[in-house]
Amino acid sequence: MYNVPNILTISRIALIPFIFLSIFFTSSSYAILALIMFIVASITDYLDGYLARAWNETSAFGRLLDPIADKLLVATALVVILAKKDFMNCPYTVIPVFVILCREILVSGLREFLREVNVGLPVTKLAKWKTAFQMIALGMMLGKDVHQNWSYLGEFLLWVAAVLTFITGYQYYQKSLDYVRSEEAKKVKVVKEVVVEAKAVTEPSKPAAVKKAATKKTAAKTSAAKKTSSKKTTAKKSTAAKKTTAKKA
Question: Which range of residues forms the domain containing residue 14?
Answer without folding.
Answer: 4-196
